[in-house]
């Protein structure tokens, strides 16, 4: 069986506020493996694919604007239970609900300006991880 993978993004707020290293440190501390990593400027097409379940929502333009406000860091990370465990490490979607000790609880700074700026994305299932990996790493098998 191939190892479980997740697609993790450090969103523009995480990059701008200097939290790339912190996110990577937390991944490494859990002994997960970074299989691929790059800095990218997200295109509208990539974002519409990535957020295909939100693209028709009234707030989608605020997500698009936020996600194009600066570079992001995309990673493929693998390890046992990575999808479920990293979701716990990231914390709740809305940073005001995210517990201290989670990435969002510790580092999210702005979440009342239309878009929810919450530092990281991580895949919510093994299936969505494989789907999202194709969007950000089309060169990967
Ligand atoms: P998740 O990132 O915790 O998986 P999702 O519900 O999949 O949460 O939403 C994806 C992203 O879209 C969120 O992380 C957040 O940045 C943004 N988002 C979700 N719901 C809203 C909303 O109601 N207003 C603005 N942005 C939202
Ligand atoms: Mg999600």
UniProtKB/TrEMBL annotation:
Catalytic machinery residues: 121 (pros-phosphohistidine intermediate)
Cofactor(s), names only, from the UniProt record: Mg(2+)
Superkingdom: Bacteria
Binding positions for ATP per the UniProt entry: 11, 59, 87, 93, 104, 118
UniProt xrefs under CDD domains: NDPk_I
Record GO terms (molecular function): ATP binding; metal ion binding; nucleoside diphosphate kinase activity
Family annotation (SUPFAM superfamilies): Nucleoside diphosphate kinase, NDK (SSF54919)
GO process annotations (BP): CTP biosynthetic process; GTP biosynthetic process; UTP biosynthetic process
SMART domains: NDK
Enzyme class (EC, first level): transferase
Annotated ranges, domain Nucleoside diphosphate kinase-like: 3-140
Keyword list, A-Z: ATP-binding, Kinase, Magnesium, Metal-binding, Nucleotide metabolism, Nucleotide-binding, Transferase
E.C. numbers: 2.7.4.6
Similarity comment: family membership: Belongs to the NDK family.
NCBIfam families for the chain: PRK00668.1
Name of the protein in question: Nucleoside diphosphate kinase
Organism for this UniProt entry: Pediococcus argentinicus
